[in-house]
Write a structure and sequence with these properties.
Among the domains are: 29 residues, no CATH class; 34 residues. 56% of the residues lie in helices and 0% in strands. The protein contains four helices and no strands. The protein is elongated and about 70 Å long. The chain starts with 9 loop residues before the first helix and ends in a 9-residue tail after the last helix. The N terminus is likely disordered.
């Protein structure tokens, strides 16, 4: 199997490669997807599984448009503090929300 090279989407690419390989194996052995799924259901027992307690605190992905200089500011600040800039922006916004900070808009 050829190496899949991609940095930000490494796990996505890896799972795609695994899916392609498993599909090829199913075709090679003459097993349909439904048969493989049924075999997996018999193999794995999820009856005693526990719901993820941190799921309620999961973050929501949100596309947001920011000025380049704003991003550069947070990236440099994040680099100084050794954390990802997205986390820094989240911490800043959370702090604003918790303190009830309001926006003072000044026009031209």
């Amino acid at each position: 199997m050829a190496a899949v090279v991609c940095k930000p989407l490494f796990f996505f690419c890896l799972s795609q490669a695994v899916r392609k390989k498993s599909a090829a194996n199913r075709r090679k052995h003459g097993v349909s997807f439904a048969e493989a799924k049924t075999a997996l259901k018999k193999h794995y027992d999820f009856s005693k599984s526990v719901r993820n307690p941190y799921l309620s605190k999961a973050k929501k992905q949100l596309p947001i448009r920011l000025d380049e200089d704003t991003i550069a500011y947070f990236k440099s600040l994040a680099e100084k503090n050794g954390i990802p800039y997205q986390n820094l922006i989240n911490l800043y916004l959370r702090e604003c929300a918790e303190s009830g900070k309001t926006l003072a808009m000044k026009w031209g």
